């Protein structure tokens, strides 16, 4: 299973495949987990989810930003989405990656871009802006930017990845910030992160409980794991923790029935909706997490019409088809 995971994480980091995939548009089933690439399409999806009492956090997809121009373009797109959310009066906020805003080559630039986003969000009804966490090397950068911004803005928060040994310290460091708690999506070394599902789950539960008991701000528990979700519900009941103090979150396209039933029980619920052309790395990380997610891809490859469309991009189609073949072999090991 670890080989399977490593394989897809490696694909997610491949800049050539990411660039090529942008030209093709969401394929291999990615269109089931990415909500289009125009603002009207996005707003329509948000309105649909809102009708079912489900709020949205929008991720304007974008990775491997290497120039100032690219970072300014990413910021501009995010500002436009914030304006659209306010204009259409939908229940949504934004999730932003600092690497999109230039942190990999100029941290000051990323800070300035993030500040501009927060100013706009403040203007637009104090909309919440979440800084997503990425690979471990960027954690210091995120904290640097966050620590500078959190005095000036109340509407900024971040994510804690339970696979990190230092997750608990981060919970202790930010009791006043709105936080999202996740297991963690990247491949990290054993010197900094737990490696087995048992260890990660156990640390996840530990930080969730600590956070719910001590937080002075809202908490988002972001997982598709029904055992963790049941545990959280029981823990809240036992400790008289109000439903208004927290929400559950899931990714768009996964476990919609479960999401709906949790929302129907009166819990706040938010779906993380990725949007835009830069779908490949995001989709590869979802495949890395769960072999069964490959079924999304197989559906498209068994559909002759879709295959014909993909075939227009010969080399990409060959690359993607062999990717699936290798993945299948890895699964059988
Ligand atoms: C809203 C949201 C935001 C996120 N933000 C970040 C971030 O900023 N940084 C980051 O590193 N990671 C982020 N992640 C990803 C996260 O770290 C995990 O990689 C991802 O959520 C997979 O872990 P899991 O908790 O869902 O449980 P897993 O360990 O993947 O799954 C546990 C169990 O849940 C069940 N299950 C899971 N998925 C399904 C399904 N589709 N259908 C049926 N059963 C299922 C299965 O029984 C499975 O064994 C985010 C995740 C979510 C949901």
TrEMBL record:
SUPFAM superfamilies per the record? FAD-linked oxidoreductase
**Catalyses which reaction(s):** L-proline + a quinone = (S)-1-pyrroline-5-carboxylate + a quinol + H(+)
Q: How is the cofactor bound?
A: Binds 1 FAD per subunit.
Enzyme Commission number, as recorded? 1.5.5.2
What residues does substrate bind to?
A: 97, 285-286
Residues annotated as binding FAD are: 161, 183-185, 197, 223-224
Q: Record keywords: Nucleotide-binding included?
A: yes
User: Looking at the keywords, is Transport present?
Assistant: no
Per the record, the domain of life is Bacteria
Residues in the signal sequence: none
One Pfam assignment: Pro_dh
Q: Name the enzyme group at the top EC level.
A: oxidoreductase
The pathway it acts in is: Amino-acid degradation; L-proline degradation into L-glutamate; L-glutamate from L-proline: step 1/2
Q: Which cofactor does it need?
A: FAD
Which terms does the record give in the GO molecular function aspect?
Answer: nucleotide binding; proline dehydrogenase activity
Instruction: Provide the alphabetized UniProt keywords.
Output: FAD, Flavoprotein, Nucleotide-binding, Oxidoreductase, Proline metabolism
Biological process terms from the Gene Ontology for this record are: L-proline catabolic process to L-glutamate
Q: Which residue range or ranges hold the Proline dehydrogenase domain? A: 43-293
Which PANTHER family does the record match to this protein? PROLINE DEHYDROGENASE 1, MITOCHONDRIAL (PTHR13914:SF0), PROLINE OXIDASE (PTHR13914)
Tell me what this protein is called: proline dehydrogenase
């Amino acid at each position: 299973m670890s080989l399977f995971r490593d394989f897809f994480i490696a694909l997610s980091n491949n800049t050539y495949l990411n660039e090529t995939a942008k030209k093709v548009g969401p394929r291999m089933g990615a269109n089931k987990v990415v909500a289009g690439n125009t603002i009207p399409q996005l707003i329509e999806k948000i309105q649909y989810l809102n009708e079912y009492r489900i709020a949205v956090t929008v991720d304007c997809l974008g990775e491997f930003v290497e120039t100032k121009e690219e970072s300014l373009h990413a910021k501009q797109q995010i500002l436009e989405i914030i304006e659209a959310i306010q204009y259409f009066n939908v229940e949504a906020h934004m999730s932003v990656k600092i690497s999109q805003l230039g942190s990999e080559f100029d941290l000051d630039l990323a800070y300035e871009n993030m500040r501009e986003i927060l100013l706009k969000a403040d203007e637009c009804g104090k909309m919440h802006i979440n800084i997503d966490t990425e690979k471990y090397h960027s954690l210091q950068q995120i904290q640097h930017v966050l620590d500078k911004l959190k005095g000036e803005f109340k509407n900024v928060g971040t994510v804690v990845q339970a696979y990190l040994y230092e997750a608990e310290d981060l919970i202790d460091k930010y009791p006043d910030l709105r936080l999202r708690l996740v297991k963690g999506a990247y491949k990290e070394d054993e010197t900094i992160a737990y490696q087995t599902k048992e260890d990660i789950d156990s640390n996840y539960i530990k930080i969730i409980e600590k956070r719910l008991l001590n937080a002075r701000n809202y908490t988002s528990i972001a997982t598709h794991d029904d055992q963790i979700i049941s545990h959280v519900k029981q823990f809240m009941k036992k400790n008289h923790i109000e439903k208004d103090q927290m929400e559950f979150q899931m990714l768009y396209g996964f476990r919609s029935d479960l999401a709906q039933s949790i929302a129907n029980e009166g819990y706040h619920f938010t779906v993380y909706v990725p949007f835009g052309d830069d779908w490949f790395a995001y989709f590869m990380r979802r495949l890395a997490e769960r072999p069964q997610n490959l079924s999304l891809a197989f559906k498209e490859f068994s559909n002759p019409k879709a295959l014909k469309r993909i075939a227009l991009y010969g080399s990409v189609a060959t690359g993607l088809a062999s990717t699936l073949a290798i993945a299948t072999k890895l699964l059988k090991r």
